[in-house]
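[stage:ingest] chain + small molecule (NDP)
[stage:ingest] validated
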Amino acid sequence: MSSRRNFLQTLGTAALTLPSIPTAFAAAVNSEPYQGPVLRVALMGLGGYAGLVARGLESCQRAKLVGLISGTPSKIKSWSQKYNIPEKNCYNYENFDAIKDNKDIDVVYVITPNALHHGQVIRVAKAGKHVICEKPMALNAREGQEMVEACRNAKVKLLVGYRMHFEANTLEIVRMRQAGELGQIRFFQGLSGFRIGDPGQWRLTKNLAGGGALMDIGVYAINGSRYMVGEEPVWVTAQETKTDPQKFKPGVDETIQFQLGFPGGAVASCLSTYSMNNLDRFFLNGDKGFAELQPATGYGPIRGRTNKGELALPHVVHQTKQMEEMAAIILDNKKPVIPVDGEEGLKDLKIIDAIYQAVKSGKKLSLNL
Ligand code: NDP
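[stage:predict] done
[stage:export] tokens:
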């Protein structure tokens, strides 16, 4: 009951009156408390982002936090008290394979530093549980391919934490493009960046992050260019600049500009950086119109505008919406408008590999996704 109340508070009274509110949420508002199946989620890595996911889960109808995996005993203590998690559903990185015998857990959501995703996802798959893995799914396409295969062999689902794939303004632009309202798509611009702080953090450590801004924030422009243009890119060029080699050590990129070419003739021009604030913008141009999102990928509210005017779709907490939709994907085999499966994550990793190669070689490289 309390989660239903939080859910209503999350939406806010203004949003409740709007017709464009997502159907699942509208249904929850109008109906009796939900009695159907619930996705039982364990979170792995209790850091900053896991905190947001846990908060988002509090308002979910069809997904619930039931388990914890952490290397920090004090976090297990405080989180299990806060979320009422029994000791038998708490694990550390050494013993979590035993989750295979735990009937209370359906899916493990991996929210650890990038370099750990590959091994942890494969272990979860071998334990027979579905996996949600944070972006970037892995450090490179070889790792990504192994994760996809491990999940396929174990007959479990692998989903990537691409929360923007469920965001209402984003989906409205995808709908407009699919309906031909923007005409033939000619151009996409994706600007993704922020100014990173503490030089000692894992995001600036090559062996935990796998790279720099491109792995962490540039992946939004890569992934966004694919769902905004609606095609898979066939070539890439890329250029790197570094203003602070002390902070951004070899293998940790500060700023990369990259360009992608699409089979229909559209081009994408993107910027990924750890050195600029207020950089979160998507722009799509077609023969009949344009669409713009700014902010495009932050936690929201997302602001959208097209040649027809403002997009004013109501804000729903991204992590709540994502986990409701992922519950439907796992429990009901629902097909999302923009895929979030391991293959989708793997395509982005292939592009990341190619961007790093293009930076090194200075050449235009073909992509075969
Ligand atoms: P944090 O540093 O805040 O948390 C990571 C957690 O991973 C730690 O708190 C720790 O939890 C665990 N961990 C295990 N091994 C290590 C290690 N060697 N070094 C550091 N931490 C370790 O990172 P974030 O939560 O910001 O990011 C985690 C993942 O989530 C990344 O892949 C990132 O890209 C992604 N992310 C996605 C976002 C999105 O919007 N989709 C937003 C932010 C991040 P414990 O102590 O419990 O073991």
